C-alpha cells in the first residue's frame, strides 16, 4: 500500500527525514509514531506529493509517487495538519465544492455523499455556520469528512485527533475502525502512544528522521518473562515456588506476587498442584511506550511518555 526506499528530505543542513524504508501493507492500521520534530509531517507530505524528496523512492497503491499522483490521489483520503477550508463558507458548502472536483454523479448523489461524510464525523447538525466559527476539533472533523468522501482504499492521516476532546477521540477511533473493517487501509501519524496502542496493529517509530523500529504491535508488546499472580495465600505461594528451578519470586505486595518465569501456564500448574488458590494470573508484557523508549534512547523524553517504566520496579527480596 505504501512502500518507501531510502526516503530522505533535507532542509539545508537539517535531515528532516533520513533513509526511511516504510512498509505499509493492505489491511494495516499503521501507526507512525515519533516525537515532535521527528519528521512525521514531512514524510506524510512526501507520500502525498506535497513536498519533493531529496532522495529515495515512494510507491503508494503500487504506483510511483509523485510521478503518478494524478491516478493515485483520487484513491487516497488524506488529512494533514491544519486542514484547509474556505472560512466564510459552511462545512457543507466546503465539502460540496470539494466534491465537485471528485468522482461526479447526479446532484442528488453528491448531496447524499456530502451529507453522509458530515454524519460520519459528527458534523451533520452544524447547519450553515461558517467554518471560521468552528473550533479546532470541528475543523479536524471537517478535514476527516473531506478525506472520507471518496471512500478511499487508503487513508493517510497526520495527527487525526489533534485538538479533539476525549469524546471526539473516541468517535474518531470508532470511525477509523469501522472504515478499516470495510476494507480501508489506514496510515496515521501520532505522537500519542496510547492512541496508537489502542488503534493500530502495525507500528513504525521515527526518531530524529530515522525509522528505528517497524513491526507488528503484538511483537513489540513481547513478554517481559514476568508473571503477576493474585492469591489469598501469597506466603504459601512463595513457599511452593521456593525450590522450583526457573521460578524466582521478585515481588510480594499484599495478595499479589510477581514471579520471573517463562511459561505462565506451567507456573499456574505448579501453584495449583501445590495447593495455592490462584485468583488471577497474567503475563507482564512490554507496553508500546517501553518498546519506543528502548529504541529512541536519549530523545525518548520528547515522545509523550509520562511516568517511569512500569516494569522497572526495584526487586524486593522475598523469603518464604
Ligand atoms: P510535529 O509532531 O511537531 O508535527 P513532525 O514529526 O511532524 O513534528 P516535521 O514537521 O516533519 O516533524 O519536522 C521535522 C524537522 O524538519 C524539524 O526539525 C523541522 O524543524 C524541520 N522542517 C520541517 N519543515 C521544514 C521547512 N519547510 N524548512 C526547514 N525545516 C523544516
TrEMBL record:
Protein name, as recorded: ABC transporter ATP-binding protein
Native organism: Rhodococcus cerastii
Keyword list, A-Z: ATP-binding, Nucleotide-binding, Transport
SUPFAM superfamilies registered for this protein in UniProt: P-loop containing nucleoside triphosphate hydrolases (SSF52540)
Family annotation (CDD domains): ABC_BcrA_bacitracin_resist
Listed GO MF terms: ATP binding
PANTHER family: ABC TRANSPORTER, ATP-BINDING PROTEIN (PTHR43335)
Keyword Transmembrane applies: no
The family this protein is said to belong to: Belongs to the ABC transporter superfamily.
ABC transporter domain segment(s): 2-233
Short name of one Pfam family: ABC_tran
Gene3D superfamilies: P-loop containing nucleotide triphosphate hydrolases
